[in-house]
Amino acid sequence: MEDGKPVWAPHPTDGFQLGNIIDIGPDSLTIEPVNQKGKTFLAPINQVFPADEDVSRHVEDNCSLMYLNEATLLHNVKVRYSKDIIYTYVANILIAVNPYFDIPKLYTSDTIKKYQGRSLGTLPPHVFAVADKAFRDMKVHRMSQSIIVSGESGAGKTENTKFVLRYLTESYGSGQDIDERIVEANPLLEAFGNAKTVRNNNSSRFGKFVEIHFNEKNSVVGGFVSHYLLEKSRICVQGKDERNYHIFYRLCAGASEDIRQKFHLNSPDSFRYLNRGCTRFFSNKETDKQILQNRKSPEHLKTGALKDPLLDDHGDFNRMCAAMKKIGLNDTEKLDLFRVVAGVLHLGNIDFEESGNTSGGCILKNKSSEALRNCAELLGLDEEDLRVSLTTRVMLTTAGGAKGTVIKVPLKVEQANNARDALAKAVYSRLFDHVVNRVNQCFPFESSSFFIGVLDIAGFEYFEHNSFEQFCINYCNEKLQQFFNERILKEEQELYQKEGLGVNEVHYVDNQDCIDLIESKLVGILDILDEENRLPQPSDQHFASAVHQKHKDHFRLTIPRKSKLTVHRNLRDDEGFIIRHFAGAVCYETTKFVEKNNDALHMSLESLVSESKDRFVSQLFETTNNNRDHKQKTGKLSFISVGNKFKTQLNLLLEKLRSTGSSFIRCVKPNLKMTSHQFEGAQILSQLQCSGMVSVLDLMQGGFPSRAPFHELYNMYKKYMPSKLTRLDPRLFCKALFKALGLDENDFKFGLTKVFFRPGKFAEFDQIMKSDPEHLAELIKKVNHWLICSRWKKVQWCALSVIKLKNKIKYRAGACIKMQKTVRMWLCKKKHKPRIDGLVKVATLKKRLVKFNEVVNALKEGKPEMSKQVKELETSIDALMSKIKNTIMTRQQIDREYDQLVKSSEALLTALQKRKKQEEEAERLRRIQEEMDRERKRLEEEERRRKQEEEERRLKAEMELKRKQEEEERKRREEEERRLQLEMEAQLLQEREEEVQRQAVFEQERRDRELAMRIAQSEAELINEEQPDAALRSVESPAFIPAVMTAKAGGPGPKMTMEQMAKEMTDLLARGPQVQATKAVAGTKKYDLSKWKYAELRDAINTSCDIELLAACREEFHRRLKVYHAWKSKNKKRNAETEQRAPKSVTDYAEQNPVSQLPVSHHEIEANRQQRYFRIPFIRPVDQYKDPQNKKKGWWYAHFDGPWIARQMELHPDKPPILLVAGKDDMEMCELSLEETGLTRKRGAEILPRQYEEVWERCGGIQYLRSAIENKQARPTYATAMLQSLLK
């Protein structure tokens, strides 16, 4: 977009407005409108499109526009509409804008003749051109055709459908009255299926597919009408400014007086089914006078008649009656139709009120008696039966005999109103079906070769309130849009192939996911709705919730709260849903979805109408009655799915459309007021988007939408070229022009008759051609240069052709020689071919001998014999090859001898195979025997291992039992010691108390004596001084204590001497275990080893045979080790690493539980030199601080020979094992006795000898112990003795 060039910018009412770009923002443009200088506004950059320089120019085909976008499309339609040109092409699609007035000479017979046999595009766009194209395609391709007419209500679909039918019947009719019948059928269908809405005065409230059938001579022979989705809710309820179906008003306005009295007709405001909407008639000044005053409603009298140039209720009634006569309906059939219509009107006037009794039912109002009587009379029903059927429902019980008991269930007022409306809808719906069937009977045909179908169906609809009807219509349009995309692309692709462009297939966005959301099995919205209808108590809220639950993550479905309209955001989630259709998002209110989806009556009502006395009424329900399920209970509401029925009809229709060729007419409504010469751009742009026209433009952007014939380009630009260039052929002229301009070959394609441009490239080409004269002169030079170059290339090509001819002659001469050589070779080959083939076969046979030799060499027995046979066969083969080379032999002779050799080789091969098989069998038996031996050994090993494991489990159990017994014995001994200790302490406490008492007595006696002495001295008594002293000395002596005690106790007894008391105290204290142990050691200590040296003790342990001396030496040796290690630990260097000879748990136990030493003789008897093995976890102090998580936990193994350790191992991760043996490593080994370590009390610490020996051997303990024995460093232990015996 260059500065100063006009652009189209979005406008809220006009759709787009012309302006100029003032400024460019990051994602928006500043636009100044052309007609409002000085005012600017911002527009999104993706909604601004380039415009043509000449905005008043218009084209018949939008694909011929320089700029292909939705703005230029809308403007082109607007310019043509302002000139009363209502038809425009987009490729082969016709856009028809409703003019809302009669355009003179647009649909005359002369116009029809003008379009007959003319190709599309040769004449101005017209609906007749589309109809003629469909006929010519049917004739040429021998295939049925379809014309799809779509658009919203009021866009002119019905009128364009009429024009198509009229064109086909007038142009290619057979001249019989059947052509006229097809055309005259439309007024009758419109009367019963069309109605006034707020958007259209003659809106078709049903879809129809009209088929015009042709014979082999391409003449019209008949027709057929299929209808879809009649809007039955309109029968009972209409909008404020809307009307019911035309037939009701036309019958009230145009019926004769006798019909009016016979059917009890009145003005529209007297009927419930009419007075809730608009009650005015359509009429003009003349016909308004012909309508009697008593037939006009107060609204009509007050406001006046409705005006429409195509509608007139009074005149249309007369025309409808004439059309009925033309299509073959007699007066009786006509009155039958009118009678049922009148019966539906009177049925709507029946009102109900509460009965007031306990049953809770309802009754008819008094004023409804006349309406009931009139309805029963017109429909041929019994008045009382009708009353009962409307106010009650009949049910059959499952018990009470073969047929059960009949129960009448009273209905509430609301239920009765619903039943009345359902009956009215059913009667009118079947009446409409009868009208369509009767119309089809009016133009029958015996045979048909092809047909042209015209589909008149509502386009995409979205209102403020959208219900089930809009849902079905938009579902239909989704399917048709998918079909539309497929067909348009296909035709575009066919055009590219026809012109030889070689363009790749153009792709488009598919809406299959939206279709699947609606119609897929089980989870589709229609199936969910059907499932809801089958529930005992269906509800619209539950249906909406189920839809949201099953499709909560679907892109096309969302909740009403996300709508852009406030009225939709007020809906709850269970009151509706939004579907994103191809044309936009639509919010559907699910109220009455369930009711509208059910097309069935209560059986009591249906039975009543089907048994009507009026034959015509009973025939309307005859088909339904015959198809009814007889097992169904009377009174129960059956279910007939409207949505499923519509889906089936739609799929059949699409199958029919896909089997035919197709043309499309998109009808557009210019304004909402339905007035002429008023163009509402925004509203029309929305229709174009909904009809898929904008999508078509987007699709064509990927292809070559802009196209122009060569002669048009020649005529357009020849005035800019000199006469020298204008003499060129148009195709050559265009080619020279494009080559001289140097255009990118990807931007255009040369077809057979046209040149095709990429979107926007035609505008660039036009701009170059219309540039300044200097540039044009330069362009002419380029064209001349290209012509000279092209002519020089032709000269070069001629010279090259001559050279090529000379080379071709030389090539052919060489080829002749090669042919002679080949023939000679072939003759020679034919002569010697048998011998060559024979040599090849024999040579192949000789090659096989190599494998024979390999097999023979692999044999173990009979090898010489087999080698000899192979040699003989090889000699025979060599002889035959020599014979073939040196003599002339026939093919038969060679084959005979070759067969003999083959038989010999096969026999030899059989023998080899047999021998090989024997050897393989022997080898297989040997392997089987070896496998059996291995299996036997494996089983024996498993049995040995199992017994060993059982033995180990037994030993471990015995060890655990022994540990428990020792633990119990230790506990019992400790308990006895504690008891004796407590007794001794109590005895000592008692003796101390007695001693205190004796001292008190002694002190008292001393004081008494002193007092007596003082008294005696005062009385001058003579007292012997020596006796008290002697007595005092006797008292002070220890011998006096027991005497005093005995005297105080009052018991007679001998006086205890000091020696006796010492002996008694000695006996008392000797009862303690520590004293006993000390006495035992002192009493039994035979040797005084305190002065022996360390070396003397070690030598005595290693060499002495005196068991008592050996035990005493061991005990003294380990006592000195304890003293040494204690001194060493006390006097170690600061920060020096602590040496640990045993795990900390062992040393801590020895410190906390000192063990008394038993006599040596008892020690030896108790231990009996038992061999015990232990394993506990061990962490060195150094590793403890480096590894606080204890990942470097090691193991400490100990072998105790009697009470003292004989072997010791330390196993740590990432370190070599530490092995220690008694004698050699005494200073590093644990110096504690077995009892002091407490290992016997640790559960699981003791292990089996085998387990210890395996680890000892794996860590190199045998070699270590052996070297210690050889160096005479090991102390004699059980381990050294076993190793020495093993070595011997």
Tell me what the structure shows.
This protein is of the alpha+beta class and 1288 residues long. 55% of the residues lie in helices and 12% in strands. It is extended and about 170 Å long. It starts with 5 loop residues before the first strand and ends with a helix.
Largest sheet features: 7 strands, mixed
Rounded to an integer in angstroms, the radius of gyration calculated over CA atoms is 62 Å
Helical segment tally? Answer: 47
Strand content: 5-15%
Write down the overall mean pLDDT.
Answer: 82
Based on secondary structure, the structural category is alpha+beta
Strand order of the largest sheet: 6-7-21-8-17-11-12
Rounded to the nearest angstrom, the distance between the terminal CA atoms is 112 Å
Number of beta strands: 29
Residues in helix, %: 55-70%
Q: What layout of secondary structure does this protein have?
A:
Elements (H helix, E strand, L loop, with lengths): L5 E6 L3 E10 L3 E6 L7 E4 L4 E2 L19 H13 L4 E4 L2 E5 L11 H7 L11 H15 L3 E7 L5 H16 L4 H17 E2 L7 E2 L2 E8 L5 E9 L17 H9 L2 H6 L9 H4 L9 H6 L7 H6 L9 H14 L4 H18 L3 E3 L7 E3 L4 H11 L3 H9 E5 L9 E5 L2 H30 L7 E9 L9 H31 L13 H8 L5 H9 L6 H11 L6 E2 L7 H4 L6 E6 L2 E6 L3 H4 L6 H8 L4 H6 L1 H5 L15 H17 L2 E8 L12 H10 L2 H9 L4 E4 H8 L5 H4 L3 H12 L6 E3 L3 E4 L3 H9 L3 H86 L4 H24 L4 H128 L7 H11 L3 H10 L8 H12 L3 H12 L9 H10 L3 H24 L13 H9 L7 H8 L3 E8 L2 H6 L7 E8 L2 E8 L6 E4 L12 H4 L8 E2 L1 H10 L2 H10 L7 H10 L1
Parallel strand pairs: 7-21, 8-17, 8-21
Antiparallel strand pairs: 1-2, 1-5, 2-3, 3-4, 6-7, 9-10, 11-12, 11-17, 13-14, 15-16, 18-19, 19-20, 22-24, 23-24, 25-26, 25-29, 26-27, 27-28
